[in-house]
Amino acid sequence: MKITDAQFIISAVQPHQYPEDALPEIALAGRSNVGKSSLINKLILRKNLARTSSQPGKTQQLNYYRVNDLIYLVDFPGYGYAKVSKTQREQFGTMIETYLQEREPLKLQLLVIDIRHEPSKDDQLMYKWLKHYEIPTCIVCTKADKIPKSKWAKHVKMVKTVLEAEPEDPFVLFSSETGLGRDELWQIISEKIAR
């Protein structure tokens, strides 16, 4: 996809803050520091529209980015970060669950996982939630450039096995360093929003 315009729109916590223009939404979930902001920046070919941080747990709302006046990318707070209080974690959980249950423009959920590591308990729980709510899901494994190409297949198998991934869910190897997987991911997104 040729990116002509991309902008940050709003950080939302409550449903009444969500944009109301009914553009299709593609949401991103993943644990803190998995590279969601870098993935967004690579997708839209911007250096830092989505703020990356060495401090995990930075995103605490649903961050909406409008791309080409065609779709929204919606970045969820990262989960599994120890320094966030239990109350905050519960608030994140409620906020995300409300969004997943009620948000009609949601066309696809990207479950973002670091290819180098086994999916965490939180990743597994998130995937089960998505399946429970019958939300179309694409598993995106980031940081593919950090492991040798010869080990990709082994790591992909590990991720799919631990998640108990359903075979129909698309799976993309991604690198925000090299751009690997960018075109493939846009293809999957384009097909989802065309329906």
Describe the protein in words:
It is a single chain. Strand 3 and strand 4 form a beta hairpin. The chain has a single domain, classed as P-loop containing nucleotide triphosphate hydrolases (Rossmann fold). It contains 5 helices and 7 strands; from the N terminus they run ββαββαβαβαβα. It has helices spanning 36-43, 86-102, 121-132, 152-163, 182-194; strands at 6-12, 25-30, 62-67, 71-75, 106-114, 137-142, 171-173. The longest helix is centred in the middle third of the chain and has 17 residues, at 86-102. A 7-stranded mixed sheet has the order 1-3-4-2-5-6-7, with helices on both faces. The protein is 32% helix and 22% strand. It is an alpha/beta fold.
